[in-house]
Records
---
Amino acid sequence: MTKYQKYWTLLIILLVAIIAAGSLVIWSKYRPGQPVEISLPPARETPAGEIYVGGAVNNPGFYPLKTGDSLDDIIRAAGGITDGADPGQLKLYIPDTGEEPPQKVDLNRAEAWLLQALPGIGEVRARAIIDYRQQNGQFNHTNELTKVEGIGPATYQKIKHLVTVAD
């Protein structure tokens, strides 16, 4: 064995000894901690979901339904009933499991092509709705459509069940 090989052998033995000593130090200081306990907080009352309010209300759309809400609370959340509505003709619809609610056109987000799909709304009226929205800001209630040039009460009555306004 040459002198050069002896130094390398000695260096390798020294490195192995350092690694072994370091491992022993680390292992001796390792103490397993206490077991981790996972606990869930006590159950609290959560909203029961959402409810769709449509028909002769000022702002049809989806509203959160909380435990204890009354029909009056829900109607108030939708902006109350419109003038000329008959509160004696209130209808409650409960869909079958998996049944999708009707899709509505959001007046605050719809593009012209989607607005044109509404009955009585052509290219000119769709452009007027978008122009109104850009000049006056977002719609707060669907009945604001009657303020748009070319859309009167008759046209609004035809489409009010097909439109909504997002928050």
---
Amino acid sequence: MTPRPKLNEVADLAGVSLATASRVLNGKQGVANSTRERVLEALSDLGYRDVPVRQQTNGVIGIITPELDNPIFPVMAQAIEARLARQGMLAMICSATSDTVNEQEYLDHFLSSEAAGVVVVNGRYSSPEIGYAEYMDLAARIPTVLVNGVDRDCPLSAVAVDIASGGSMAVRYLASLGHRRIGCMVGPRRYNSTRQLIAGYESGLESAGLGSDRDLISETMFTIEGGRAGTAKLVEAGATAIITGGDLMALGAVAGLRSWGHEVPRDVSVVGFDGTSLVSYTDPSLTSVRQPVDRMAQSVVSMLETAGRGAHQLHLFEPELIIGRSTAPAPAPA
């Protein structure tokens, strides 16, 4: 009769955690193919033969996103799901909104069902007053990765675009086009992403030799309607260019400017944020700060494995400025 493998021996020889070795021996998903092969090879090297590896029953990776009408969220979730599928892992995408199942209910479900891992995109942790405590409890039992909305002190495995860098990049580009009254339209200030965009915006102004003006910062919602409403204040303040916290906000800004008789970009230039595929098909096509979604998704999948071994890190990705037709040189002074 083949002896029962000693988990610590297998884990030590394979160079993985006890939790990862256990997931392989129990046939659960959430483990990279290369790691699974190391564990099985270690099992063989230790002389264990014909040890049955139980079929996984809870190998789902939960991906929790906010509402899906903002294009960046389904794009990010789909990219992560595709990467997981290539690793032979099944993902379940869940949209947490005030009108449906809330985020905590999804977290509780994945914890009780012993999911192979959980990915949370722009979760409630995005608000500093919520923090990371409830996610740390989850991460102690299930590999957990947070995506965007985190601050630099995040104590968990996290992948994020460098929003501050993107904001600064957009300001410097607009300044190079001769704009001196550059507005910044942001979401609610209770979010980390908003604070980071404002910080990058102000840093960009400083590096371009431009002074800051509180009238050139407009707080609104991350929607088309919010973009339209938030633009009015910036136009009144004399902005000739507007940086927004999202592509939907940028579309709202363009619609609002047109309804007030302004032409984009002749009168006012507009920059979005996220750079999803829709920016190429708008009129005019949007200049936008693009998130490197594919590379971020790959990092998420890699981090699910390391998170399972108790290793935590924050991986910040530099965004890319995609130039469309919604930006142009500043208009000549009247």
---
Amino acid sequence: MSVTATLREGIAPLVDLVYPPRCPLCGTSIGAQTGLCAGCWSELRIPGKPACTLCQRPFGDAHVGEGATCAPCLADPPRHDGIAAGTLYGDGSRKLVLAFKHGRRIALAPMLARLIVARLPKLEGDWIVVPVPLHRWRLWSRGFNQAALLAREIARSTGARLVVDGLVRTKRTPALGGLGRKARARTLAGAIAVSPTKAAALKGAKVILVDDVLTSGATSEACVRALKRAGAERVIVGCFARVLDEAEGIRPQSETPEAETPGAP
């Protein structure tokens, strides 16, 4: 155990005495500072099996064999090597995303990251963790990159190497909501690139690309494309919440305009 972890354990009782643990969503008293109450946990929808062998899209109650591929992947095979989503986007995950990103409750990062890590496949060999980048103006206005906070926690949990500036946004882009597939691609063309100083580290690397919410996949697709062009061997997309219309029937609301790995600059 590290010195930091030992110190954290040592002062935990004092922290709990001064700040009694409460659910970050509803305020109910809980047993530790690191989770939700039972009621709020029950609002989260965890992806299950059977699922698409390429993108891990759950098939729900459908009776499919091992190794089945979903219709979207059959129509347009993805460039990535899998998606590890901690939850399916719904009321519970939406509240957490709003609190984390727009409510600036960055202390939620470890818990959200743990849900992503739980969905990752077995990581063999050396892996690199890279967050979806924010444009510098967005970063300065918000003060933090939520994807980078999640990536840091995932790197800590898995032992992978964090490369926080592996990707950069070379231009600002508007929100992608309401745009079609081709329009999204045009908007993002040339907007994301591999950092020249990290190109050598990414060549031949196995990468976990991290963001908070995956909606259409337009931005993650642009990120994967940039990583693969730089020579990355594998790229797994890790997100806290994944929007599937057929699973939830809802999409990120207007108060979360950047809520994808997508449209926010």
